[in-house]
Design a protein that fits this description.
The chain is an alpha+beta fold. It has 3 helices and 8 strands, in the order αββαβαβββββ.
Length: 168
């Protein structure tokens, strides 16, 4: 199959930037007729929409534009299905920019190597600087008699998987 992920990502990022969108992730899944190119996009907050997020219209417009350019540039020679969507409320965090943007949010993460004897954590992201995140681990809601929250520092290089935890 003729597919260069870096070339496709460059095309997607160029189109997204022209619309004020951020590319969160580009992935190709499946094989043959079940091949799917997934693009996850987001939009930073603004005065009109302080929480940010993408609309259905943002996804449809990006899908149309990217599809046309991928076809013209023959960036993917085999057939595929294109899916453009929001990363969701429980979005994946992987890049340093993701951790900086979501300081103050609740996250769930797994580490490659144990920290304090465990690899799985859920807590509030307190800060992210110089490739290290500070996580306040404790109950989501303060309960009488509950132990005080624990503050952990974790190297980004040790984070295997991290996601936002939706709060309502």
């Amino acid at each position: 199959m003729g597919f260069d992920l870096d070339q496709v990502r460059q095309i997607v990022e160029r189109v997204a930037a022209s619309s004020g969108l951020e590319v969160v992730e580009v992935e190709l899944r499946g094989a043959g007729k079940a091949r799917m190119l997934r693009i996850f996009i987001d939009k930073a907050g603004s005065e009109q929409n302080p929480l940010g997020g993408v609309t259905h219209e943002d996804c449809a417009n990006l899908s149309r534009e990217v599809s046309t350019i991928l076809d013209v540039e023959d960036a993917i020679s085999d057939s595929y299905v294109l899916e453009v969507s929001s990363p969701g409320l429980d979005r994946k965090l992987s890049r340093p920019e993701d951790f900086k943007r979501f300081v103050g949010s609740r996250v769930k993460l797994a580490t490659r190597m144990p920290v304090g004897g465990t690899r799985h954590f859920e807590g509030r992201l307190q800060s992210f600087e110089d490739g290290r995140l500070t996580l306040e681990v404790g109950p989501a809601k303060k309960k009488p008699g509950a132990p005080p929250p624990q503050i952990l520092e974790i190297e980004l290089a040790n984070v295997d998987k991290a996601n936002l935890v939706p709060e309502f």
